[in-house]
Design goal:
mainly alpha
Length: about 240
């Protein structure tokens, strides 16, 4: 099913689902482990294969997605400075992943993915579409071993690049999930990465945060203030 040496997306899927099984099966113990930091460039074929295994093995997409946090954080880390980044995901592969997230978040149980993968690969997603199709305020992880929303935020940046600001603001400030409210120092890092990698986004994004932080909506003001602090901490 998967070769540890190939550094494929499927490797992350298997690791994520193994860790998820340790939560529900007392006979399994993960012990000490390190979150994966490297993966081969993610292609359409790699995501197709991962979806096939998820369907065949009854795996959980969100458990798989959570393992992409480290491999996306590493190349986009804002502390690396304003060097040019190359997206980890091919555009079609990223579209497959984002559509699968949309489908999974809407469903009561893990839906089948492989048969829809080619259709999703051909369907681009705009920032507006992602805002309309995903309700970020819900609890993304439930009782899962790891929450996948941070990985999803990194994926949004990897896919939209300098157009990611509206989606990140929606997820982090306007409609934050319970996890975001308690972990802005983690989930807010992609916003810092965006303004470092794409300096032209900095002025507009930060002005928007300041306006909200100074506004009358106390809950959003707190979120904006927390995100500003996260960005300040992560700037090189």
């Amino acid at each position: 099913m998967w070769d540890e040496g190939d550094q494929s997306a499927l490797r992350l899927c298997v690791i994520g689902n193994l860790l998820e099984q340790t939560r529900t099966d007392s006979a399994l113990q993960s012990g000490s482990y390190s979150v994966p930091q490297h993966v081969a460039p993610v292609t359409e074929a790699a995501v197709q294969r991962m979806f096939e295994v998820i369907d065949q093995c009854g795996f959980d997409l969100r458990a798989a997605l959570s393992m992409f946090e480290g491999v996306l954080d590493s190349p986009w880390d804002p502390r690396n400075g304003a060097k040019k980044r190359k997206p980890l995901f091919d555009k079609r592969a990223a579209q497959m992943m984002l559509w699968s997230i949309i489908e999974t978040l809407r469903a009561k149980k893990q839906p089948l993915l492989a048969d829809k993968a080619k259709k999703w690969a051909a369907q681009p997603l705009s920032p507006r579409a992602l805002i309309d199709k995903i309700d970020p305020a819900k609890d993304w992880g439930g009782k899962r071993y790891s929450d996948p929303q941070t990985a999803a935020a990194w994926l949004v940046l990897d896919y939209l690049e300098d157009r990611a600001g509206d989606v990140l603001r929606d997820w982090l400030v306007d409609r934050p999930s319970p996890m975001v409210k308690n972990n802005m120092h983690i989930v807010g890092k992609p916003a810092a990465a965006m303004i470092v990698a794409f300096p032209k986004t900095k002025k507009t994004f930060l002005e928007s945060l300041k306006k909200t932080a100074d506004g009358k909506n106390k809950k959003q003001a707190q979120q904006a203030s927390d995100l500003q602090s996260t960005i300040d901490f992560n700037l090189p």
